[in-house]
């Protein structure tokens, strides 16, 4: 790599709502990065005063977003970012020391890359349960949705994109809809032509709370179905997507599926 080329500045966006304990640990991990971030933006989505205090004490910039929902908060953060790259974490993400270095390296190796994503490691499980949970969760997310969408899906707990790419799609995402999965929605608005890569070395620790109970899993599946229906135009672009869409009530055959059976 040409040493005269200025390395890209990386803005880190962390949307949060009442997650002070998790957020504090996340920000501590960011402070230990061997490549320092250009800025850390904590998007305050109607949090308690304690959460904002934790963010400011860690040196992060607090950006308020009154509209409820992760989609609105994440989009507000991407809009506010001033770096060349925008990296995304959730409040319960714990990135290793080399996380930002790996992100910078991915874009250096492949300048045509638009976005890169990686795994979330369920650190609060035993090794055996972690292996099973990760295989199931990531197998479905990256395998099933990757085939259906014809694109590598972004993982909201661990991804980065060029700011220029966000500026191209910012008007297309469903930012005002609190019922969508913002990462899946962004993936579908990126479309199949943009260059997105899964990087196995890009891994962060995450909690299992999203999959910790049947009600939580049910709620997540419901948001997935809603996100699919909001992006039906993208699903129709692939044969696998049209087939998957049927199960979510999309298309002529999908309309024959009773609504009570839709995810």
TrEMBL record:
<comment type="pathway">
    <text>Carotenoid biosynthesis; staphyloxanthin biosynthesis; staphyloxanthin from farnesyl diphosphate: step 4/5.</text>
</comment>
<dbReference type="InterPro" id="IPR001173">
    <property type="entry name" value="Glyco_trans_2-like"/>
</dbReference>
<keyword id="KW-1003">Cell membrane</keyword>
<keyword id="KW-0808">Transferase</keyword>
<keyword id="KW-0472">Membrane</keyword>
<comment type="similarity">
    <text>Belongs to the glycosyltransferase 2 family. CrtQ subfamily.</text>
</comment>
<dbReference type="GO" id="GO:0016757">
    <property type="term" value="F:glycosyltransferase activity"/>
</dbReference>
<feature type="domain" description="Glycosyltransferase 2-like">
    <location>
        <begin position="11"/>
        <end position="131"/>
    </location>
</feature>
<protein>
    <recommendedName>
        <fullName>4,4'-diaponeurosporenoate glycosyltransferase</fullName>
    </recommendedName>
</protein>
<keyword id="KW-0328">Glycosyltransferase</keyword>
<comment type="function">
    <text>Catalyzes the glycosylation of 4,4'-diaponeurosporenoate, i.e. the esterification of glucose at the C1'' position with the carboxyl group of 4,4'-diaponeurosporenic acid, to form glycosyl-4,4'-diaponeurosporenoate. This is a step in the biosynthesis of staphyloxanthin, an orange pigment present in most staphylococci strains.</text>
</comment>
<dbReference type="GO" id="GO:0005886">
    <property type="term" value="C:plasma membrane"/>
</dbReference>
<dbReference type="Pfam" id="PF00535">
    <property type="entry name" value="Glycos_transf_2"/>
</dbReference>
<dbReference type="InterPro" id="IPR029044">
    <property type="entry name" value="Nucleotide-diphossugar_trans"/>
</dbReference>
């Amino acid at each position: 790599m040409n040493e005269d080329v200025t390395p890209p500045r990386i803005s880190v966006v962390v949307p949060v709502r009442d997650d002070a304990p998790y957020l504090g640990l996340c920000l501590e991990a960011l402070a230990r990065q061997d490549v320092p971030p250009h800025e850390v933006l904590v998007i305050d989505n109607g949090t308690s005063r304690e959460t904002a205090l934790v963010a400011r004490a860690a040196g992060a910039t607090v950006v308020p977003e009154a509209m409820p929902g992760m989609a609105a908060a994440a989009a507000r953060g991407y809009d506010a970012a001033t770096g060349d790259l925008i990296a995304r974490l959730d409040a319960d993400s714990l990135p290793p020391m080399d996380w930002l270095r790996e992100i910078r390296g991915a874009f250096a190796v492949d300048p045509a890359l638009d976005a890169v994503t990686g795994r979330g490691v369920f650190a609060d499980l035993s090794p055996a349960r972690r292996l099973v949970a990760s295989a199931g969760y990531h197998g479905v997310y990256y395998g099933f949705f990757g085939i259906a969408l014809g694109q590598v899906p972004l993982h909201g707990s661990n991804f980065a994109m060029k700011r220029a790419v966000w500026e191209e799609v910012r008007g297309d995402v469903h930012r005002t809809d609190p019922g969508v999965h913002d990462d899946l929605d962004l993936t579908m608005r990126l479309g199949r032509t943009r260059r997105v890569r899964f990087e196995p070395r890009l891994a962060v620790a995450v909690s299992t709370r999203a999959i910790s109970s049947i009600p939580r899993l049910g709620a997540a599946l419901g948001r997935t179905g809603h996100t699919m229906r909001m992006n039906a135009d993208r699903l129709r672009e692939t044969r696998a997507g049209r087939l998957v869409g049927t199960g979510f009530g999309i298309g002529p055959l999908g309309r024959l599926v009773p609504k009570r059976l839709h995810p």
